[in-house]
Amino acid sequence: MITQRMHEFTRRGVLWPWRVRAEKGDVMLRVHFTPEDLARTRISTGPQPMWELLLSTNRLRGREGDIVFGAWRRSVAARTPATTRLLTDLVPVTGYFADFLTPMTEAPSLDEALETLRRTPRGRLRTDLAILAGSRKLPAWTAELADGRPETLNTLVEAAERYFAACLAPYWARVRAGVNQERARLSAALADGGWEAALSGLHPTARWHYPVLEVGYPVEHDLYLGGRGLHLVPSFFCWGLPTTFRDVEFEPTLVYPIEHAVGWSEPDDDRKSLAALLGRTRARVLEVLGEYPGTTSDVASRTGTSISAASQQATTLRAAGLVDTRQNGQSVLHSLTPLGRALLCEN
């Protein structure tokens, strides 16, 4: 996959990378669909741990998005394990980093992804490391990795485990909440306007003219899905342009940045003012919907209130523009609006 430093802008009170719209002549990734591809296109069921892990190392080292990631970066800098160097050796801040590092598993599970990484075939290791070596000098230890030595792969997996535990696990509920919020937004766009609305709203650079989706990308690239469909992966730590696998043998995947609000990494104690502003019950409803969208009965269960009370509080929050409610079969699904998410993250 390829990453690139980009600029930032503000939209709807939250930060987005890049600029408001794609201009004629911009460098693009063109994704070519068939009718079968649209039928098989799906949205990730949650944050993909290895994508978030590796992209977060770029946020840790770079200065882009400082207003969003600066507090997180400062909070984890002192406890980042020394073994993280093994990861950053393979993941430059810009340019290509090895496809094998982000295996896609049936469920977005760190354990499954790490086990898949541990079993990476030697041919795949050699191919990806050779590509990486074409743009930068690799440290000596990667020669053992290219040989597929199990002990070297185990060391790399352990480095990923330590980094995740120290730098991501304390914030994972908020990462998951942000990705789930985007998943709910994308699902609503799909329900209301079909794939045209969903795909054209993926990113500020996105342009959809059936059968081709164009999005900003560091290099000119065409991705032909060939009936396999596209796996859409909203990412918390992706910043700037969307990214994808370099090798077309992998599952067609588009990882793209979600919206962010300032203050998302602040400690929970700093949210006491939210209860003073909204009232304790409404604040709790806002918080549980920040974790992931839910039906009225789900909100009632998670907040320990009655269904009627949960419905009343959701109605009040919706009237204030903090919660969005949509029909979901025979029930309704509540989710945070960008304003609600911004308020939650700033308190």
UniProtKB/TrEMBL annotation:
> What are the UniProt keywords, alphabetically?
DNA-binding, Transcription, Transcription regulation
Q: Which domain of life is it from?
A: Bacteria
SMART domains noted in UniProt:
HTH_ARSR
Q: Does the keyword Transcription regulation apply?
A: yes
Q: What is a GO molecular function of this protein?
A: DNA binding
Q: Signal peptide position in this chain? A: none
Annotated HTH arsR-type domain residues: 262-347
Q: Which InterPro entries match?
A: HTH_ArsR_DNA-bd_dom, Metal_resp_trans_reg, WH-like_DNA-bd_sf, WH_DNA-bd_sf
Protein name (Swiss-Prot/TrEMBL) = MarR family protein
